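Question (not urgent): is this output format expected?
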Amino acid sequence: MSDARKGPDGALRCPWALSTEDYVAYHDQEWGRPVHGDDALYERLCLEAFQSGLSWLTILRRREGFRAAFAGFAITEVAAFTEADKERLLADAGIIRNRAKIEATVANARVLADWSPGDLDTLIWSYAPDAASRPAPKALADVPAVTDESTALSKALKKRGIRFVGPTTAYALMQACGLVDDHLADCVARGR
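Got this back:
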């Protein structure tokens, strides 16, 4: 039996997407769609790290604040942030003011600034599982929180100096960036 539920337009969707208009838009237009580019993937990696322990809705509603605070998540710009910038971020009510997560965001940019263009994209996408090996989930219980691929991706990123990216965060990144399609089988957004 499917867990998909009718949305305001009558189309079936993943039930988590129906609690707010923000979620419906994110679910329909972004979640599970392929994301490429080092800066774009760095942004998603950072936002998933900030989400750790919080609701994704909290992050989603502050995303523009995060973008403004972190120079649009341009890796080279964030890598140049100073201690004064970190203090500015700790006072910015438009983001989550968690010192460890802010420090990790800047430290990760510094690591990534030394990589060749395209390396982050190539690394992350190299862990995308074969879509044919993954049946479409019918129920939320069919959607894992961690997979062998997300564990391996987490280890690969950590080995290269990236912080705040455990296997669960890595899997959330994989879902958000389209490495896996965890829209339910009956969901209107499946396979988009």
